Amino acid sequence: MAIQFCLHGSARTIKEAVERAQQAESLGFEAIFFADSHMNNVDCYQVMAMCAVHTKKIRFGTAVTNMVYRDPTITANSFATLNEISDGRAIIGMGTGDGPVYSLGRTATRLADFERGLETIRDLLHDRGVVVPTGKERASGTVMLKVGKRPVPIYISAEGPRTLRVAGRVCDGVILGTGFDLDVLEWAESRIAEGAREAGRNPADVDIMPAGMIYVDDDGDLARKRVRSRMANRAHHNFRFTYETVPAEELARVKIFMEHFDIAKPIEQRVDPDLVTDYLIRRFTIAGTPAECAARVKRLEAAGVKRLLLTPPNTNYNKTMEAWGRRVIPLCRD
User: Fold this and answer.
1) Which residues of the chain have pLDDT under 70?
2) What are the residues facing 216 on neighbouring strands?
3) For residues 110 and 20, what is the distance between their CA atoms, to the nearest angstrom?
């Protein structure tokens, strides 16, 4: 099967989300993932349900929801319900918690608790149920999920080695926030494989979906310039976990970038664009002419990647989505 393309973005209105999902479906995108940022966007679960009713084949996921605000049992029930509404088109996208968590003074889920929560979601959605201990109100026993369409694939956003190993042990797939660099992809595959082998699983059963920013323009240099500020937040998030994947010759400049990044500023003003190096652009974006973008995609496909999660810039999301669908996807299919 040819490489598939998924979109990531936020929605401020239901109308915007539904129209975007319909347009993405007509352009040939496989899925659209919505941010779960409940103070900035409309509720992603209601959005996905509305989109499912008004589309036929595009899939829907979260990128990403968390366990800080949603108990794993609620997440399992919500996605089983969405999977019924969409006739099997739901995808769970989970994370330990980032912007929506920190912005309200909360703390991200500890990794050990996160893995246990993932196991709960997986067991409920695969009809194994969860064991509830004895309490004042009830005896111990296994509780089953009795509604919705099951199972539902579980992906987690992962960048650091420990989280990648969790994905290998528990998940169906990884939203790989480390970008589109082939050497980093190989590094991540090794960490995922370690986790899979620990759990007696086949590493090939874990889908790896590299994620990053896109921009398409007939002027390739202009495309890379315009994506520079927006992708800085993605790079900063990644390097909070590890510098292990940074080439030695790039490490000093990456550390300077990190030292000057100000998380308190608006998302496109958090760092001087001059500190965003060409290495960061290449790693975390696919930006350029349609031919340049297609060439990057084909290299990833040759390395075994089956799908990509692409984030157009908010300032011209629909235009970039349209350009990718009409001008890049056909080149990738040739």
Assistant:
1) none
2) 288
3) 34
pLDDT tens digits, 149-162: 999 999 999 999 99
Q: Give the residue extent of every domain in the chain.
A: 4-223+285-333
Residue 229, pLDDT score: 82
For residue 55, CA distances in Å to 117, 246, 268 come to 31, 41, 32
4-223+285-333: CATH topology is TIM Barrel (3.20.20)
| b (16+ CB within 10 A) / e for 127-166 | eeebeeeeeeeeeeeeeebeebbbbbbbbbbbbbbebbbb
Position 138 scores a pLDDT of 85
pLDDT the model gives residue 241: 79
**pLDDT of res. 63:** 97
CA gap 51, 17 in Å, rounded: 7
CB atoms within 10 A of CB 79: 30
* Strand, coil or helix: 257: helix
- Say if residues 121 and 92 touch (Cβ distance below 8 Å): yes
Res 247: pLDDT: 97
Is residue 2 exposed (0-12), middle (13-18) or buried (19+ Cβ within 10 Å)? exposed
Q: What is the pLDDT of residue 99?
A: 82
SS3 140: coil
pLDDT at 230: 83
Q: Please report, for residues 47, 58, 197, the alpha-carbon distance to residue 28 in angstroms, rounded to integers and kept in the order given.
A: 20, 8, 35
The pLDDT value recorded for residue 218 is 98
CB atoms within 10 A of CB 178: 26
Q: Is residue 190 a contact partner of residue 277, using CB atoms and an 8 Å limit?
A: no
**What is the token pair recorded at 252?**
């000093």
Residues in Cβ contact with 116 at an 8 Å cutoff, skipping those fewer than 6 apart:
none
Cα-based torsion angle of the residue sequence 76, 78, 82, 84 in order, rounded to the nearest 10 degrees:
70
Measure CA of the first residue to CA of the last residue in the chain; give whole Å: 13
Tokens of 126: 């695969």
